Amino acid sequence: MNQPDLGHKVAELRQQKGLTQEQLAEKCEVNPRTIQRIESGEVDPRSYTLQCLSRELDFDFFRDDRKNDSLWLVVMHLSCIIPLLIVPLLVWSWKKSQSSKINQQGRLVLNFQITMILLLFAGGFLLTFLTAGLPFIGKAIDDAGMNMGLFEIIIICAPMPMALIGLLCAYSGIANAIRSLADKPIHYPLSIPFLK
I want to staple 4 with a disulfide (CB 3.0 to 4.6 A). Which of 41, 63, 135, 165 is the partner? Predict the structure, then answer.
């Protein structure tokens, strides 16, 4: 629920409960001016304040936002298919203060994507190094009198780690999007916890 509807609903529920703005502010441990500003639509309450208002007024202000949260969570998780980092970073930065679920899962997605990007850079560097060294490796194999089949196996297997990282990203993104919709625990393997 967004302003000004949120402010009107808080005022309506507070009056139904027979509370003054000062009494509600005291129960929520905030300044009475904060309640006044919320009710007038001047400010959007912080997540903690909104949770407290929900508890004191017996109304779930997050009800409408949970549907919206699911959409943003799925977008963040599916962005792992192509780890560009910009999509989850924007969603997490924009929504983290409004939803603890987006905050928590956004950190997991960002940690996973940062880790995968680092692995892809490392793999790309090694692949470039190997590609640049192919003429030398081929000459060394010829000089050693070894079978050319080994050389061909090296060439074929060199990009495999990159392909496996891509498959891991796709699988993790899709699986965690499904887990998120089902309210199951989220797990990203091989993540380094950059954001705690």
Answer: 41
**Per-domain residue ranges of the chain:** 5-61, 65-181
Query: Within 41-159, where are the H helices?
Result: 47-57, 63-78, 86-95, 100-132, 134-144, 148-157
Give the orientation angle of helix 160-181 with respect to helix 63-78, to 10 degrees.
170
User: How long a stretch of residues is the chain?
Assistant: 196
Tell me which residue of 112, 110, 14, 92 sits closest to 59, measured CA to CA: 14
Check: pTM over 0.85? Answer yes or no.
no
CATH classification of 5-61 is 1.10.510.10, yes or no?
A: no
Rg of the Cα atoms in the chain = 26
